[in-house]
Amino acid sequence: MTFEVAGDAYDRFMGRYSRPLAADLADWLEVASGQRAIDVGCGPGALTGILADRLGADRVAAVDPSASFVEACRERLPGVDVRLGRAESLPHDDDSFDVAAACLVVHFMSDPVGGIAEMARVTRPGGWVGATVWDLVGSRAPMWPLWEAVAQLAPEHPGEREFPGGSREGLVAILEGGGLRDVEAVELPVTVSHPSFEEWWEPYLHGVGPAGDAVGALGPDGRARLEETLRDRLGDGPFDLTAVAYAARGRA
Question: Domains of the chain by range and CATH?
Fold first, then answer.
């Protein structure tokens, strides 16, 4: 699995869903003028951009382990402190921020509890620490049509259901394990209108994340069968798809 891809490739794949989700997460974490915030696992900058718009670029930091994403985020959001690094070892001092957020990242951390604990460390006491993960267990991620078709064509593929934090209970447990208090969770739905099947399908061909890996592993013939199956199910477009994420927050 890789996220060492161009920022534009990730944007086409997930940005259409992550941008509205990031705005909802910022609302739920009560991001407000005068605060300092950090985006952990920032990718090309969907949530980082929301934070910079609300707080000012000089009051926002971002961290990601992908060099290509760090470069893309820096180019798009000059003035934001964007660093190469991992959630499990943040390059920031204790109590540096009022809010720490991780949008669609926890399930990819090598140590999710440790990553949340680090987010709590760099957040002032009483500040919100929050995260979102798609409802992977309930098959309500944006990729659900693809995973249903993959399960039919390659039933041995594990999909994403076993990733950590992919249920309400799992995400809450990770935040509580990271030492947060008063942890609570909500559902955040996102609906995206896709003008055509090709617009929806093309981003899956660039090897982004587990879904891209799964498509690539099928080989040319398998990809052709997968595309045919998905086109039969979704139609030529336009069509709407709704995804649902769990968001959890707790106090540092």
Answer: 7-251 (3.40.50.150)
Give the contacts of 168 (CB within 8 A, at least 6 positions apart). 135, 185, 187, 246, 248
- Whether the Cβ atoms of residue 103 and residue 37 lie closer than 8 Å to each other: no
Q: Do the beta carbons of residue 199 and residue 237 sit within 8 Å? A: yes
pLDDT at 13 over 80: no
Tokens of 80: 């934001």
Nearest-CA neighbor of 39 among 5, 2, 76, 6? 76
Confidence of residue 201 (pLDDT cuts 50, 70, 90): very high
C-beta of residue 71 within 8 angstroms of C-beta of residue 93: no
**Measured CA distances, 36 to 39, 55, 61, 163, 213 (Å):** 10, 7, 8, 30, 36
Question: Could you count the other beta carbons within 10 Å of the beta carbon of residue 200?
Answer: 22
Q: What does the buried/exposed string (b/e) look like for 60-88 if buried means 16 or more CB atoms within 10 Å of the residue's CB?
A: bbbbbbbebbbbbbbebbeebbbbebbbb
